[in-house]
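User: Okay, second chain of the day. Same drill as before: sequence in, structure tokens out.
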Amino acid sequence: MIHPTKLMRGAVSAIAIMGAAPMAAGVPVLGVVTAQAQEQLVASVLFEGNRRFPDNQLLSMVDMSTSGIFSQQRLNADIESIRQAYDRDGFNSVSVTARTEATADGRVRVIFTINEGERAGIAGINFTGNNSIGANNLKGTMLTKETGVLSWLLRDDTYDEQKMAVDRERIRLYYANRGYPDAQVNSVAEYDAARNAYFINVTVNEGQFYKFGAVGIETSIDGLNTDVLRSTVRTGQNATYSVLDLQKSIEDMAYEATAQGYSFADVRARLDRDVATNTFNVTYLVDEGARIYVERINITGNVKTRDFVIRRELNFAEGDPFNRSMVVRGRSNIDALGYFSKIEIATAPGSAPDKIVLNINVEESSTGEYGATAGYTTENGGSLLGELSLTERNFLGRGQYLRAAIGATSSGRTFDFSFTEPRFMGLKVSAGVDAYHRTNDENSVSYYGTETTGGQLRLGVPLTSALNAQFFGGYERKVIKDTDGPTSTLVSDGQEFNKAFVGYTLTWNGLDDVKKPTEGLYATFTQQYIGWDHNLLRTEGRARYFMPLIPDSGVVASVRGQAGVINSLDGGNVHAVEAFTPGSQLIRGFEGRGVGPRLGTGEYLGTTMFAGISGEIEFPIPGLPESYGLSGALWADAAWIGDASDIIGGDGAVATSNDQPWRASVGASLIWNSPFGPLRGDVAHVLNKSTDDRTQVFQFTISTLL
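Assistant: Same drill. Structure tokens below.
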């Protein structure tokens, strides 16, 4: 029998012997010459015509730049690699060619010529079969977006089949979380060469609508308090079926069982479908799981972020019991950091049957932001504004927050610095420091200017999953600037006010989504003592409740309430520099420092008490793509503003400045979720005001929760 390996070896040896004589005579063997011609050394790799991708990014796609060896096969593969990269980014008509140039040292220079063409966009995304959920809501769940005015910046309007597969799953899950567990989603993309754009047609088969039926808990673990576990159940009877609520209930229940001391508790949900009533009866089974321990945790992909930043989010360490629900919660915690674009967690067998290895692979995203912004604000009489800022959310890879900013308006300047350590001394406690210097010039709404310098220390403590407490203390020095007329009667030029303050803030966050809430309550309560040149207790409370007005339509209603009071602890009056200055944040349609008590000279006093309530309905604008980030709102505000009897110099307040303590206004808004943050323009009509109040029809501000 002839062995193929030995046969090949013999053939190679024969060729070598045959070529030995001519090589000795200085005549090269033909086979060797061919190999040298095909695999020359690469001197350099250059690119021409590339605008979308920079040279360094293209170099990472080219194998020849790393291997340093030229061959026609490698060249063809590199051309295809570049072409696919452009194709994924929407440049369907791209053409890539290459040429070579010999260098003096016998190597070869490779030059890729790229004709990018025009980038193909998404002309439209159309839905059929979506009888229960609006198209705009479904588009909002997709990564693929229609071409809009910001597509050149966001580049989210490129068609990619892999991304579209993810979108189909996102739509299916959107239905599964809203009562449609059997929804099926298909899509077809059609390329229109005339428009150089795709039309995507998505077909949905919704299936039947389901709710949760009877809910029960069964356990085989002695001593486990099921009454406490019941508080973690989100799948209440007659509630809309939701895969997310089911998963969160399992996760929270397992976490609660672990907190009771049962580290190996395993929670599963048994679903019994009742077709007749369109319900799912749920039984949560809590049993003792396999006794497996975490032998090792391997973390890869974190080039910048330190290992300990990721490990501390897991709430377990090497050697601890392995609990799948704890791993799921840990992944959610890591994702919530906002440092990574991709997180993958996999398990592998350990060195023994009762040990397991956890492999965490992450892909880091940019956490630093720097830039310059410019704009216009209608606050304090209106002015141009600009800011230079540097923000790093993962400073030195340690998970710390750092921000420095310099701002300016036509009537003032600001310098701000902030630093936060999220895990002070390794505890679940945040600590931070803020420092600032702010200059406000005299203007049309303020009779005097101020120069304020101060700082504070902060300490944040989570009390529950939704309730947080922050304690703070600091110092501030304020110097009055009053050199231009009209002269203030409340302060004098060069007058100084020093204050030391200490206080706390309680924050309740029960929102489903902080960036775009549709349901839940967000509330804050703050109290602070102000001493040194003052002796005051300042109290403020704000809350806003969101609710979907029309389910799955994007129409969301909210009710907001706020109130504040300042008490003088020594029985004296409050100085105007510490008084509340209610404006458009309390009630829209009024200028900053344009509503409330003022002197006969027109100088603003402020107040020591206020209260307000507001109702708003936000809705998507028909006909506009969701990718524009635009929405509309209708609102109504009402506010009560106290008098100035508790303010130093308040006895000089004119009656006409607060002859109507209750103010009211209605209006409409255009809200833009811009790349620079949420912005809104409000058009207001004042229904009720005091005689001397100063109104404004339009204002442009940053949109906030409260």
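The longest helix spans residues 72-88.

User: Thanks, on to the next one.
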